[in-house]
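User: Please predict the structure of the protein below. I'd like the answer in structure-token form so I can feed it into my own downstream comparison script.

Assistant: Understood. Taking the following sequence of 498 residues as input:
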Amino acid sequence: MSSASLPTTLGALRRSRRFSEEAVRGRSVKDEIRENLIARLREGKPIFSGIVGFDDTVIPQIVNALLSRHNFILLGLRGQAKSRILRQVTDLLDPELPCIEGTEIHDDPYAPLSRQGRMIVAEKGDDTPIAYRTPEQRYVEKLATPDVTIADMIGDLDPIKAAREAHDLSDELTIHFGLLPRANRGVFAINELPDLMGKIQVGLFNIMQEGDVQIKGYPIRLPLDVLLMFTANPEDYTARGKIITPLKDRIGSEIRTHYPLTIEYAIEITAQEAWKDRGGSSEQVYIPKYIGEIVETIAFVAREDKKIDNRSGVSQRLPISCMENVLSNAERRAFATGEELVVPRVADIHASLPSITGKFELEYEGELRGADHVALELIRSAVAQVYDDYFSDADMSQIVQWFEMGGALKLGEAASAPEVVAQLRQIQGLLETAEAVVDTHKKSDEVLASAGEFLLDGLYAHRRISRNEELGYTAEIRKRKAAESVEVPAEPMRPSYN
């Protein structure tokens, strides 16, 4: 039904087939969402778009909560798509919702909740003007912070309104409604629920359970029609004193989110979210598969690293931001060297350190070492893991021997692909071995340079060769020092990256 053909008065609304009192009376927002969800399930349509890796875990639980008409909470660490899920619940609302025009809490024309709405209907009858709200307008979201007040969330008395309209302060018409009443007949989401002060949590509890609240000592009945959704960090949610027990008890479903369970899911998320379409330049962009796997593996390794505070989580935004920085560094090199094909190298991942260090919180040991050092260790571990997937069965003895015989190879981050390939050809068998990770349709110098550097960095990650700022890749430091009969440290020195 087009907006032009929608009923504009209460009388026309009563006569309409779609919005007649018989068709909609008693239908709550939770009923509305349930009916539209059932229709989607029967048609086999996806419930949420752009949510990857939750099909067998989180989404079925959310569907069950909505079918049960539950208020629910998503428990998860940062970067687990909680807010995106909540915002997409509005897709299950009707395209239009009729309400009394001009009312603050968008009253149902057939059953006005506010005194203002009742007065309008009593005065104008069938001529009561009708407005319509879209699903987006019916969604209200609030980030819980310690400074949020009852006035923000529920409402407060407005003395200016009372004086202007000559109302007594105890009159309901003097109330300035807060966010929750203004979400009436819609969806209200609160992020980080435990950060709300206790008295505000009590206010939420009263509305959910009793439908009433006290504003400045005046009891007000507010049996709101609203779906309440929350998010929280699991540790905060279960901590004593963070959330009042009666409120927790009245949240129908508690659903745990999680980070991607596989590298494949993580790559799909990053491919969806990262800005890879660099349409402003004429250069083509080709991202080798192993580069994407290394970027994702950094996050997986970080989530298991004891030097990183896993209670705050390692957001999926880490690989997304990292991949964007990797591409930008590869672009910068391509612009400078005049290369037509932009191909990231492992060196570009090292150059993306600023997009990694801000995405995790450090434990005491990590603080002692520093964020940059921890990030470099993560990259090294990620390269080692991905290298094993490609070269675990390859014979690298000839390449390692070249370095042990005194060979050194310094690959500058800004060096052009032909220059890098020319240097790699010095090592017999290196490029032939590296071609195992190269797409047969992409055998350009840019791709070969990236593959060859990946192989060398994998050997370095496994400590079969060494690397330093002065010489670049060389023989593994302990073997080199042993040949010179010099005592060596137990661990190799921290490398410096060009």
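That's the full token string. Residues 485-498 have pLDDT under 50 and may be disordered.
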